[in-house]
Amino acid sequence: MTPKEPSCALPSRSCAGLGGLTLARVLHVHGIPVTVYEADPSPSARTQGGMLDIHDYNGQLALKAADLMDEFHAIVLEGHQTMRVLDQDGTLLLDKADDGTGGRPEVMRGELRQMLLDSLPAGTVRWGHKASAVRALGEGRHEVTFSDGGAVVTGLLVGADGAWSRVRPLLSDAVPEYAGTSFVETYLFDADTRHPAAAEAVGGGSMMAPAPGKEIFAHRESGDTLHTYVALSKPQDWFAAIDFTDAATATARIAAEFEGWAPKLTTLIADGDTAPVLRPHHALPLGLRWDRVPGVTLLGDAAHLAAPNGEGANLAMLDGAEVGKALAAHPDDIEGALTEYEQAMFPRSAEVATFEGAEIHGIDSEDNTAHALINMFTEKGQ
């Protein structure tokens, strides 16, 4: 590959995720060739998660840089910006309507990813390329070896390969650590007819019912599907003692943590139509930085993994757009472009983790009550 051909290397998860694909699209817009290497064998190999709210101060800026705002508006779920906060007894404390401003519109993650894939020339994404090793060759060049024995050498390597990045060790010895909380994820289908009380509690958008050490968060996806994330502040050993291969037993154990809560809330757990899925939260050290290493950089979770705070996908997309814009502005100075990107990315990601991370799903806090959450929304004008 020539220096103008960035290679997004994937060791395990998804370089063909939102950040890597946004980078590829912005480079394509500017006429810069790029190849994205993705471990998954096809676009449909894995489900892509639930809804995302795409913010006007980061995610939407990335889509504007990618010249995809019209396509984005076509997949927005209208009215889904509504948000409710309930107390443990089911009392509705806040019912924030969708103001129609488009500041944080909701889309399905899978549809957003497909939109980005559709915007790229055929062959941009090389499916079934799981990186097994990455090594520096000197003078800013790197070799990525794949599990099938193939390899590629590139003059610019961008690691958009998530929490357990194989590219990150080229820049830092930091590794993610358990953040002290986990989600347990489940779904209710046909909720309006089968579970009307739970459907009413969630409303047309999202619902949060927080308490110290725990929270029930749910949102309405397309149709009358309710997607629930149960957040618990527990050590990993606590979760390891639960047999998640036994759906009924695991569901009962998680639901027991919410004994005494309103049935319309606990129904979201106890009556789930899918087996509960454990999703532990890991994070990199807050404010992680590294010295400039020629020919390589990181974006998204590979660079600044944090516990869920509503910003991860948005930040990854903005990272991708900013890398692409910097390379387009400095086509003959890769190091200058990467330096410009990293100098802006480091404080941006640290600020978001500090500001948002303590407030959204900050379930270790003794003040993490519904009333405290409402105060936060009121003070911040969200």
UniProtKB/TrEMBL annotation:
Listed GO CC annotations: cytoplasm
Catalysed reactions listed for this entry: a tetracycline + NADPH + O2 + H(+) = an 11a-hydroxytetracycline + NADP(+) + H2O
Location in the cell: Cytoplasm
Alphabetically ordered keywords of this record: Cytoplasm, FAD, Flavoprotein, Monooxygenase, NADP, Nucleotide-binding, Oxidoreductase
Annotated binding of FAD, by residue: 53, 109, 301
Domain FAD-binding per the UniProt entry, residue ranges: 16-348
Annotated Pfam families: FAD_binding_3
Family membership: Belongs to the aromatic-ring hydroxylase family. TetX subfamily.
Quaternary assembly: Monomer.
Biological role stated in the UniProt entry: An FAD-requiring monooxygenase active on some tetracycline antibiotic derivatives, which leads to their inactivation. Hydroxylates carbon 11a of tetracycline and some analogs.
Domain topic, free-text comment: Consists of an N-terminal FAD-binding domain with a Rossman fold and a C-terminal substrate-binding domain.
PANTHER family registered for this protein in UniProt: FAD DEPENDENT OXIDOREDUCTASE DOMAIN-CONTAINING PROTEIN (PTHR46972:SF1), MONOOXYGENASE ASQM-RELATED (PTHR46972)
Name of the molecule in the record: Flavin-dependent monooxygenase
Species this chain originates from: Streptomyces capitiformicae
Biological classification of the source: Bacteria, Bacillati, Actinomycetota, Actinomycetes, Kitasatosporales
